[in-house]
Specification:
It is a single chain. This protein has 356 residues and is of the alpha/beta class. 37% of the residues lie in helices and 17% in strands. It contains ten helices and 14 strands.
Length: 356
């Protein structure tokens, strides 16, 4: 069967090379006589997988041993919990920038564990722009949490201003999608199912200095400090998901971050150029500096929406229906999505405009 052109927001497209290697490993992992699905989580082979994945994260992020690399169960919502559990001490306040629905969820979860200050928000305009960055947050919070890319709304922080607080970032949908100084962050995390692999796993990267300031005594499974001590193998690890992330990290390194960013900007530019001149489709984010190169969101009339979705389905294109919160369309341009795929979509949009 022919592969579909996949613009889903997550679980997202995986490169063909990664799918091929995953398929082989499901049948036979190296010379173990086992499937990767059967590989023991405390085996020498799995420890090698974790160690290589950790090293590749450090290499791609330009970080040294001053950071711990953790592979954790659950996705972003689990990190919404674990972050304040571990880093928000009693009597302290955490600051959050509310740039979208996922940032709002992170704020709600943090409120279960301590005081939360919304340092800036763009909720009044439906998160269709980025909030104004606070020049100073007083009193100094335990940390300032940001979401670097807002998948639902199509906004992205391309340049991150200075702050007087330890910086924590949810990078779930744009990690390795563009150049970034990762050393600026006390911690960052990313769910795997966009640029890193498959669902059920989150990557967390934490500076050891902040790790030593854990807020409370926690069960080992929920403790960053204990997870770091045990090399992410406190309990039965998600062997298959971590292995898939290793393959994605190898693929990312082979492609090169500069090439990936160049292609991502090219893909996004093709779509935004069409949207800015279209009489049928309208970009959701009008402030160009705020536009995401990972998730391009746009709207049209309900009638056009239904007809164009049907046309995409007929042409083997999937995953462009917008999030239920916003409606409209969302085209996700994560690293594995090819330039050719976007060119095909843009051509179909132009064809639809001519006949609409």
């Amino acid at each position: 069967m022919e592969r579909k052109i996949n613009f889903n927001a997550g679980p997202a497209e995986l490169p063909g090379e990664v799918l091929h290697d995953v398929g082989r490993a499901i049948h036979h992992y190296k010379r173990t006589g086992l499937s990767i699905l059967e590989l023991p989580h405390r085996s020498e082979e799995f420890i090698e997988i974790v160690d290589e994945a950790n090293q590749l994260v450090r290499e791609l992020c330009g970080l040294g041993e001053e950071y711990d690399i953790l592979w954790l169960h659950g996705g972003g919502r689990m990190q919404f919990c674990m972050l304040p559990m571990n880093l928000l001490s009693e009597g302290k306040t955490a600051a959050y920038i509310e740039s979208g629905l996922w940032a709002k969820e992170a704020i709600k979860y943090a409120g279960h564990y301590g005081k939360v200050q919304v340092a800036a928000t763009s909720e009044p305009d439906g998160y269709n722009s980025l909030p104004r960055w606070p020049s100073k947050i007083s009193p100094k919070p335990a940390y300032l949490h940001i979401t670097t890319n807002n998948t639902i709304h199509g906004t992205q922080l391309h340049d991150i201003p200075e702050t007087n607080a330890p910086l924590v970032a949810d990078m779930s949908s744009d990690i390795f999608g563009q150049a970034r100084d990762y050393s600026r962050f006390a911690m960052f995390y990313a769910t795997a199912q966009k640029n890193l692999g498959v669902p059920g796993l989150a990557l967390a990267v934490i500076n050891k200095d902040i790790l030593q300031k854990s807020a409370r005594d926690l069960p080992p499974l929920l403790s960053y400090r204990e997870q770091a001590k045990e090399n992410s193998i406190v309990n039965t690890a998600n062997v298959f998901a971590i292995y898939t992330s290793l393959l994605m990290l190898r693929w990312t390194k082979a492609r090169g971050l500069a090439t990936l960013e160049h292609d991502n900007r090219r893909k996004a530019a093709m779509l935004y150029d069409l949207l800015d001149s279209s009489a049928v489709f309208r970009p959701r984010v009008t402030e160009r500096a705020d536009r995401s190169i990972m998730n391009v969101c746009f709207t049209t009339t309900k009638a056009h929406e239904a007809r164009f979705l049907a046309l995409c389905d007929k042409n083997n294109i999937v995953g462009i229906k917008g999030h239920r919160y916003t409606g409209g369309f969302r085209v996700s341009l994560y690293n594995p999505v090819s330039v050719d795929a976007v060119e095909t979509l843009v051509s179909l949009m132009r064809e639809y405009e001519r006949t609409a």
